[in-house]
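Example 3.
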Amino acid sequence: MRISDLGEFELIKRFKKKIRTNSSVVEGSGDDCAVLKFDKNSYQLLTCDMIVEGVDFYKTDNLRLVGAKALGISISDISACGGVPKHAVVSLGLPKNMLVSQVDLLARGLFDMAGRFDINVVGGDISASGKLVIDVSLLGEVEKNNLCLRRGAKTGDIIMVTGEFGGSIKGKHLKFTPRLKEARFLVNNFKINSMIDVSDGLVQDLGHILKQSLVGAVLYESLIPLSKQAKNSQDALCSGEEFELLFTATREEASKIIKSTKYRFKVIGEIMPESFGLRLINYKNRYSRFKLKGYQHF
Amino acid sequence: MRISDLGEFELIKRFKKKIRTNSSVVEGSGDDCAVLKFDKNSYQLLTCDMIVEGVDFYKTDNLRLVGAKALGISISDISACGGVPKHAVVSLGLPKNMLVSQVDLLARGLFDMAGRFDINVVGGDISASGKLVIDVSLLGEVEKNNLCLRRGAKTGDIIMVTGEFGGSIKGKHLKFTPRLKEARFLVNNFKINSMIDVSDGLVQDLGHILKQSLVGAVLYESLIPLSKQAKNSQDALCSGEEFELLFTATREEASKIIKSTKYRFKVIGEIMPESFGLRLINYKNRYSRFKLKGYQHF
């Protein structure tokens, strides 16, 4: 059997079965970040993200944007857990015939992004590679009571998002701003029950919350904020690499969040009991149970 | 200009110039690990290492050994700083047509190595990739007074090593045991002035210590421990990926270390003033100044 027959998520499951961790690990593989014991008041967060030429970006893309993206993805993961990024290490697989000026562009994008978010790039590794590969590991911190996981959603919670969705492949996937400020505003001022960043697609990532929280949900098609690049709401529901936040909070908290005017958060649905499954109320005001596919590498 | 014209070390220098870190970073890029402030008594260590099919291993290699190597390299780095490895995240770039059984082998090697050294694998990322790529980031801890860096060597220090050198490419590079126990024995019982792991070649890695400590050295060709696979002492001096430890301590400490019988450490030379440069005393008892090349990716 080939891994393409198995699919990405089955493959990840296969790995996770093998994992044994000790009591210093609060939350291992299975959320946006690993959560590690740190000090009395806070946890440490650790995440890694690899991007590969020809898969996550193309040779012809501006490498400054690619460098920024490589770090931005991990900042988005730390944000989704409610934390603050601190230190990064960067592994680069570089084609031998790559121009030094191209490497400089890549580094500039990466270091600019690090500067914007006060991240120390503290080390790295360089290897030769046929295709350009960039892997960033990012260490962060989160106050214990600010930690957000995928498994905290509760029936009756309101589902909200930052930003707009759809057509990320047309450019946003290389130009997004990780929603760190928004995430910190949320966790510092409200009780957020669950949070995830939308990297595989809105429905697929909401699916992770539902599965881990043992709940269902209803989404309102008419409420999904569409970007200019979105073809339609179907696209907005499936588009990967949006790097927006999707989060849930009680109705009471949600109404406070909506009233706060510092950032724009939009309601898109509600958490339901598990037996309800995941349903969409479409423009004709009709329910449809659905399984939409988001992005899978295999 | 292509990066192959520049060479690996010039490329790394180019990156390091761009790095700005804040006061929470005790030691950034430039040692085996980054050293981060942690608590009253200890530092945190962070390192990453990427291995690529066709460069660091071949398709025909046993993937169980490849998985073990991917993590072993980073354990060796944490050891060289005197610390203890704790948590790892693993990014995998996998060819779509890879067999599931091959991925299982890779995972088994990696998790077995993690188990042997009490390391929690706490997360990861999977991407599609033309060639197999494995990047491991490893977080560790070290007591403040046990931290070993490259820059602590002092004139008069004795230079010592673990193990034997030469011909690693014939198999050891896939089957080495990271010298964690030996490193912890050393830092817990003796004052080690500087330490590095031999990944690029004995002379080249000693060169890192000399450069960062602003000292010179003399090596005795007849003292270099040769492995069975070593072609000759020249090979032993240049062979990369040996993953043995090279360290320095005062003459007094060195004699205590030699007398200790728990592990075998061998004297290979002495630290000299910077102006002395790096010289080898060959089998004919003659000095030769030399510049031997170790491994460079570009």
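Chain A has a mean pLDDT of 93. Residues 63-80 of chain A form the longest helix (18 residues).
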